[in-house]
Amino acid sequence: MLLAFLLLLVPLAVDSKLPPFFLGKINGQTVLNHHLNRQFVTNDASVFDDYPYLQVYNFTQKLDHFDRFNTRTWNQKYFYNPKYSRNNSIIFLMIGGEGPENGRWAAKPEVQYLQWASEFGADVFDLEHRFFGDSWPIPDMETSSLQYLTTQQALADLAFFIESMNQKYGFKNPRWVTFGGSYPGSLSAWFRQKYPQLTVGSVASSAPVNLKLDFYGNLQPPFDAKTTKLDINNFFGNLFNTFQGMTQYTYDGQSNSTHSDKTVRKMCQIMTNATEPDTVKRVENLFLWFNQMEPAGPDLSVMPNSYWDVIAQVGSGNLTILKEDGAAARGWMWLCCNEIGFLQTTNQGNNVFGTGVPLKYTTATNVVLPNGSLDPWHALGTYKTNDNQNLLPYLINGTAHCGDMYASYVGEPASLPAARAFIKQHVREFIRYNPAVDGPQGSAAFQSVFFVFSLLAILTLQ
Known about the structure:
The protein is α/β, with parallel strands linked by helices. The chain has a domain at 42-212 and 357-461: 3-Layer(aba) Sandwich (Rossmann fold), CATH 3.40.50. It has helices at 2-7, 9-12, 45-50, 104-107, 112-120, 143-146, 151-169, 183-194, 230-248, 256-261, 264-271, 279-293, 307-314, 319-340, 416-431, 435-438, 444-461, and strands at residues 21-22, 25-26, 55-62, 73-81, 90-95, 123-127, 175-181, 201-205, 367-372, 391-396. One of its GO terms (biological process) is proteolysis. Residues 1-16 form the signal peptide. GO terms for molecular function: dipeptidyl-peptidase activity; serine-type exopeptidase activity.
């Protein structure tokens, strides 16, 4: 069996592109935005054509929040959606991360938290993470520049952003709630820990808050990776990452494909097909099937199995050389290797690298922590409720990565509606929503004011 797999290495190792799944994320797409958010496609006209109320701005951000003698600044991109605003007090912030933001998570009304924004009358912001998309503190990715790409700087970015938006938009007694999925979900939870005075609560979907350098829980094959060479190791990494990726995004509601076609159930049917006795052939059939499901996606019949070819794709700090996929992959790799871990290995046991990174959230309050039971990352979540601190984990049976964040759909896992209701109820409690004070949903006064502003904006542009 091992020899048969290794023989596949030669015909497949003919492409130097990055693998389709890279350190737990879909290459060329962010974990949060999946197919909606290609790297650097951040201001495409279709987003603003589809959602004319969406606004995009640059914000003057600090380069180094922890060196008072460093006064350098840079432009950080954010999106603003005032469509639902009716009380100048409730604000929802979607945290970006792992890739660029194109505004859809601030504008697409089917997204769960935007449905709640409509009900509660919230202003909506979506902040792009430093060193991704158009938000470059320094216009390169050399290691001397990447010293400023840390979770602590990103959290401080959020704090300074909130303080600045309060001043710019005149929010009175603001009730901010942060949202995020995957790594941005971790940021959402950690932000409540470090800057509790700036928000009233957070939702941290599929957030791996218990950091591990050596995340052996994701990949556990029955062989010792230490005995393999780099290229062979990389080859198996591509195989395992593909299985992981298919599992990670199953039933997540991002598209018709993941609703009912590109699912764990279909994957298992192919891998257990008794009419094909050759297990290696079943793997090949699985990859060919995936290609048919995603004709515009990465070609899984051609994998970049050369270790050094892959490293070369992220080894430069030059953005022109890196291009879209390489820039996002290099930034994500830097965060993983430099600080947060998440290195998926084949080690089945705890060892010296299995201890948690000392970045804690355990004294935070008002945090909802939903995870999907099918999500490989849920092993790094937390499941201990703390009523005193209002830490509220929720394991959603039969769902995958960030499944609670997407629009509902017919035939979705039966556990999702209850999970969304749980999250929504606690968001309501965090903001202390009062219809008599905050205004009822879709109030006539708000609708009239929004129509007038929209009309004025159209006339101004003509």
